[in-house]
Structure formats: structure tokens, C-alpha cells
Amino acid sequence: MTVSPPAPLLRLAHHFQSMPPVAALGLHVDGCDGRTLRLSAPLALHVNDKGCAFGGSLASLMTLAGWGLLTLRLEDAGFDAEVYVAESQIRYRAPLYDDLRVEAALVDEAAWPGFVDTLRARGRARIEIAARALCADGTLATESIARFAALRRTPAAE
Q1: Phi, psi dihedrals of residue 13, rounded to the nearest 5°
Q2: Per DSSP, what are the bridge partners of residue 103?
Q3: Which end of the chain is more exposed for a tag (fewer CB within 10 A), N or C?
Q4: pTM of the model
Q5: Domain of residue 54, CATH code
Q6: pLDDT in tens, 131-150
Q7: Backbone dihedral region of 123: left (phi > 0), alpha (psi from -120 to 50 degrees) or beta?
Q8: What contacts 40, CB < 8 A, 6 or more positions away?
Q9: How many separate domains does the chain show?
Q10: 43 located within any domain
Q11: CA angle, residues 97, 100, 106, in degrees to nearest 5
């Protein structure tokens, strides 16, 4: 039996595919448990001259995972908001010779209520999201911390 992804994940995947640079990544939305978004892409589309994953591809997937996570969480909270990456720091820990698997989660889950309150009151807010890329054996290949900004387009549903 095949289980279809929930509608929010389908919308996110469709949105990613609507952007030509993102579509070229061969990105796949693997799932989201409400706190962690998982994305993947085939290594064959991201190989560098060393035979491992290109650093720019890893940075892109981690940024997209953070953006996607915040977009999904805002939608779930009833917000119509634009999400932007404001700044990020990336550390490359080990070469990745496997398909790219990235996951993103809030740096501090306890910051979410304050973020929502600020967005509701001011129409804009920022929050930090951590992302990481793992090798097939679970070894950490790359990690990032990024600050994302959300700008409310319409009032939140109460």
C-alpha cells in the first residue's frame, strides 16, 4: 500500500519544483514530523571534482530545508507569511559520498511561541533553524545555523 504525503508536503514539493534553480537540484521532500523537515537529492546531480557532494549544493539544500520547515510551521499556525533567509553559517565536517540527505529543525523549540507572538504583533519575526547533512552511516557531513525572517502578508487566523 502506498501512502500519499499530506497536502502541505505536496504543496511544498510543488513550490520547490516551480523554481527552476531548485528543480535542477533533483530535490525530494522526504517528510516532516512537525518539528523536523527532511529533504534529499541524488549525489549524481551534485558531484564535485573530488567525487563527493558539492558544498554549494549542501548549502542550498540546508537553506531550502530551513525555509521549508518554517513555511510549513507558519502555515500550520494559520499565518500567511513570506519567509526569507537572513543569514547563515555553515561548517563542512566530512566529505559526503552518498546521496544528499538533509534535515532541519528549530535551534530552540521553546523560541517558537515568542516568534509567533512577535509575528502576530509586529507582522515580522526572526527565528534560528539548524540543518545538517548526514552520510549514509549517520556521520555528520555538514551543519548550518541560519536565521530566517517571516513577514506576515495577512493577519493570522485566530
Answers
A1: -60, -45
A2: 38, 132
A3: N
A4: 0.92
A5: 3.10.129.10
A6: 999 999 999 999 999 999 99
A7: left
A8: 27, 28, 30, 99, 100, 101, 102
A9: 1
A10: yes
A11: 130
Residue-number span of the structural domain to which 14 is assigned: 7-154
CA dist., res. 152 & res. 29, Å (int): 25
Kindly report, residue by residue over 93-133, the tens digit of the pLDDT: 999 999 999 999 999 999 999 999 999 999 999 999 999 99
CA distance 133 to 129: 14
What are phi and psi for residue 67, nearest 5 degrees?
-60, -45
Q: In terms of pLDDT, which residue wins out, 6 or 43?
A: 43
DSSP string, 3-62: -PPPHHHHHHHHHHHTSHHHHTTT-EEEEE-SSEEEEEE-GGGSB-TTSSB-HHHHHHHH
Judge contact between 85 and 63, C-beta under 8 A.
yes
In this structure, how many other beta carbons lie within 10 angstroms of the beta carbon of residue 59?
Answer: 18
Q: Is 93 in a helix, a strand, or coil?
A: coil
Q: Give the CB-side neighbour count of residue 29, counting CA atoms within 13 A.
A: 28
Question: How far apart are the two ends of the chain, measured CA to CA in Å?
Answer: 38
Strands (DSSP E) contained in 42-139 are: 80-92, 100-106, 124-134
With cell 493577519, the residue in question is 155
